User: What shape does this take?
Amino acid sequence: MNPTVGKILAITAKQCPDKVAVICDGNSITYGQLNGRVNQVAHGLLARGITRGNRVALLLYNSIELVTLYFALAKMGGVGIPLNCRLSGRELSAVINSSNATQLIMGEEWAATVNRLKPELARIKDTITVEKDPRSAGEFYRLYHREPDAEPDVLVKPEDASFIIYTSGTGMSPRGVVLTHDNHFWNTRNYTSAYQMAEDDVELALTPMFHASTLGRIVTYVFNGVTFVTAQRFDPERAMELIARHRVTSITQSPTMYAALLNLTPGSSYSGSSLRRLVSGAAPLFPSIRSGLAKRFPRAGIFDLYGLTEASPGVSILTPHDPPDKIASVGKPMKHVTVRIVDDRGREVPAGENGEIICRGPTIMKGYDNDPAATRAVLKGGWLYTGDTGKLDRDGYLYLTGRKKDLIVRGGENIYPAEVEAVLQLHPRILEAAVIGVPDDYWGERVKAFVVLRPGETLREEDVIAFCGLHLAHYKKPRSVAFVTDLPKNAAGKIVKRELLKKQCLK
Assistant: This one.
């Protein structure tokens, strides 16, 4: 039987108890200490009345405490629901309510927000606050400090749900991806094989831990017993300082984060000579960024990952060992993933032909939480229909040619236009609106809104953007607004966004 997420930590702690596991903002913890703390927190959660199968929402920045909670929930059979720290109060309440979580564990930074949202969070029966200062004897400390550090006596099965990770919601309906312990185990096997991890690796993990990619890598780091360095927020200069101080060997970031490193003043005093591996994901790696990284960190091999939350998330990877003429691809499927390209009827197409990317393997999600219709739409005969388009060449390399309809990717964050459009429709002066992604040299894409005002009304661009900021996370706001007299529509009355894209390209 494959080990569960909690068991993976217990095994590693037994093998290398004195090795540093996590370093964060000046604090560190060994694997032995981490496993003991995780067990204490697990016992504390059980004593609090949280039992196997209970859903616990987690609203914290990257921290040792968040890592501890992830593994504590895994050991006592709870289902962790990581919340995007960048969401607005309105968005948070929608996700929390959709998740059916009964407990909320939050950083003290969100105490005021959660207190304001309490009337909307009827299902939340208990909240636990994690203090900013880990040395303080606050509520989180009191939860665990008198508890035993022995392994909790709870039967957790590989097929049990471990985490529910929310993708960016479409409209007012956030969608939770249910991942099992087994999903994470096999994703870990895939990552370990693809990256060829070594015992002396030191990983820099600055991407948010509420993302499936970071969560999957954390389990991988623990599985391999490597040290990983994290911080509450990404800052490019701080990142270079951490790389130099801890002799970091590997870093995984979005293309935008890499662009920020490259924008630092040349000749920075922080050396990146220890880097052996640069992994990119979440969005296409532009050739200019790739070449810049090769010049800035000549000793580091560049890996380009394609994945999605529903696949835990790794699907394929291009490694520095692949032929140079495959550089436009996202590599070959990972070890335990099978990829096919199919037409609109689900029939496999020949090599070189374009179609929808589907994949199969033990990393594929259990389904969308409480949404059987959406699950049936993407899980068919054991295959995950990604909604992304691409082609496989005769050598088995995967090329992306498109992505999920209308999806905007800004700096590695997914934005669904329908969600922004729903907010725009709330404005009393707006008759209708449509949102598209337009190219951006730094972020990859940015949000642009096309707005039709009600007769006789006026609005300024800054008014529209400010209104969206009241209801949406900062990164989802439109960066520009075009006021138009009407929106292009087809015979069925649906807005034809390709016409809006054409208008944008003509400017």
Notes: The longest helix spans residues 31-47. The mean pLDDT is 91. The chain has three domains: 5-233, 301-400, 408-506.
